[in-house]
Amino acid sequence: MLGRTPLVIGITAAAVTVAATAFASPAGAATASPWTNSNFNAAQSRDNLTESTLTPTTVRAINKVGTITGSSRGAGAGPCTSGGSVPVETGGFVYIVTSNTLVKANATTGATVWARVLDPTGTTVWGPIAVVGGIVVVGGNDCISQSDPNGLLLAYTTVGAKIWSSGVLTMFGGALSDMVVTGGFVVATGGSPGSGDVVGVHRLSTGVEVWSKNSPQCGFVDRVVVVGGVVIHKNCNTNADTPYLVANTLATGARIWARAGNWIIDAGDTDVSTGKDVYVTNPQGRITDITPQTGVIKGTFPSTAHGVLAVGNSRLFTACSAGICAYSRSTRGLVWSYGDTSANLIAAVGGTVMYLSDGAVLASETGALIRHLFTTSVDSLVVADGHLYAARTIYG
Questions:
Q1: What is the pLDDT of residues 90-140, one digit of tens each?
Q2: CA–CA separation, 137 vs 4, rounded Å?
Q3: Whose CA is closest to 146, among 80, 57, 242, 202?
């Protein structure tokens, strides 16, 4: 899936360092524009619409201001001490998981504020992270069982105090493949042969499970999104032969609608009540616009589009046969294309600027190349509070 950092189960490897190079505009103080989930919000839109410091004008003068490197301190010698997250940024601080350690760092200087070893036994591979409402939530999987691992959730305050943990993803168990946080809830999904396909919602403040659903497993469950207050996920029928795209209410888990078929969840516009579009790839391979509250299909995008990179205020950004394409969200017509066919390309958008993992910086409204910011490809990008963070994972 484009724009994702995959969660790997059962690695036996040395420590992992996640180094995030921070860039900032010299043009005055940044306005508050946090990036709170791994892919910006619980809709996984990857477009920070509140960013206003970095613009097509100011990004021309953006400079490197430092490097934030995750710690391997106290990671232990367990069988799977590897694992890391993309960074998130809020309140002037960056949070990142690397080598079994959760690190909070100063967003500008890179100085470590605190570091917490997540699993003293070293038997967990860590992945998603979110910081919402003064609580840091991280998710991972144990590496003891290759066939039926359990997903794990941990929560800390932003001052580093552990407040709760969930030993399994839901009451049904289940491996973790994705996690988002919104509206006072932690939403997680995953699947394994023993537990089936699972989605679970926990209360952010306490970790108490609010509701969960499971079904037989009939394919890898990759992603969950919350769009317009609705949880969109995948499960299977009781015979384990037909996958479904499913929508449930966030607060209660009541099913709203379901569509049979092997749909792939891409992203939505926003997790709050104003969200009106969830973008999925239909069983025929076409990116499709669905109303999250009703399941009504609004239309499909051209067959040349494949894989959503980001969802903007008026644009849908995708990979396409030309490289990168921007389409009108209202008409689904092509607005611009840019010839960048780099492998495993990811993007982050903010302040009408698109940043690409190979260093190219584009004006998101026109597709015009503004500059190349770096030459070494990175694994993740975050734009928040007048900063761009370009992170790389280093195994060694």
A1: 999 999 988 788 999 988 788 899 999 998 888 888 889 999 999 999 999
A2: 18
A3: 80
